[in-house]
Input
Amino acid sequence: MTASSAQDDDDLLSELRALLAGEPDPIANAANTAALVFARLPRLNWAGFYFLQGETLVLGPFQGQPACTRIPLGRGVCGTAAARQETILVPDVHAFPGHIVCDTASLSEIVVPFNVAGKLSGVLDIDSPEANRFGAAEQALLEAVAALYVEACEVA
Ligand code: SME
Output
């Protein structure tokens, strides 16, 4: 049930490092990060960013079906992960109280919040049309992806 081998994960992270190298623009980097994750990880139907504006997460670059534009902090998986400032792995979205349906195909999800310059800045979200698609390996991979994204954006 794993997404990929450890070698695949290393390859994805190397490719991402190269894509982001020398580019600090947060939107350009989010667009390429979402596109790479969506292209490389099998069995996803959505991969993308929400950025925090005040108390609301606002949709950023993504791949997949059109999605909800605004998610209040504390709402849904994204808003809950952001409010708690911790990753949330949802094996079955129907079992997550308050899950926000953007694409009815989504059955499992991981949301990783990230800080830029020490401040909560947004979340990285991936969805799968398979229940139980994600485990600890995918969580670690997505957290590493978010860390590389943050590192690139923090370079002045
Ligand atoms: N399911 C998310 C909403 C975002 S989409 O999955 C793209 C949530 O409950 O926050």
